[in-house]
Amino acid sequence: MTTADLAATPAPRPPGRALARTQFLLVGAYVVAVSVALGRAAAFSGHLYLPRQGDDATGNADLWPGPWGAVWLVLVVVIGMMPLAAAGTTLVAVARLASPRLRADSARWRSLLVSTVLAALVVAAWVSPPMTILYTWLVD
């Protein structure tokens, strides 16, 4: 092995960068999906509220006509599946946060900590009664 071969290999980066970005992406997608669903319900009622099955504003309306049908499918998948992915990444991130290699890089450690807390909040929101009501309204 020559010195040129050694210089060509990049130095290993501390783990956590891709995981933090993935968690931020999951949280962002979930927030956007919930916002779109609430916004669509508000378009029919005239104000922002938590829609329920059979409520006065959206009970008999065709909420997802035409191209909105594709948006509905994306919302159902994102609101239903992203919290599961966030839970999985949270478990992996907790193990990574404890590693001495990641703790040596404080900026990445803090970034991963923030993304892990946000991902855990997505999981907590997903199991809360308001999100269950919203998801049930969306699927109906």
Question: In short, what is this structure?
Answer:
With 140 residues, the protein is an all-alpha fold. 72% of the residues lie in helices and 0% in strands.
Spatial extent as radius of gyration: 21 Å
Written as H for each helix and E for each strand, in order along the chain, the element string is HHHHHH
Which residues form runs of ≥5 with pLDDT under 50? none
What shape does the CA trace take? elongated
Please report the total strand number as a whole number.
0
Query: Which percent band covers the strand fraction?
Result: under 5%
Helix content: over 70%
Number of helical regions? 6
Main beta-sheet strand count, sense and barrel state: none
Mean pLDDT: 87
Terminal Cα span: 64 Å
Helix- and strand-based class? mainly alpha
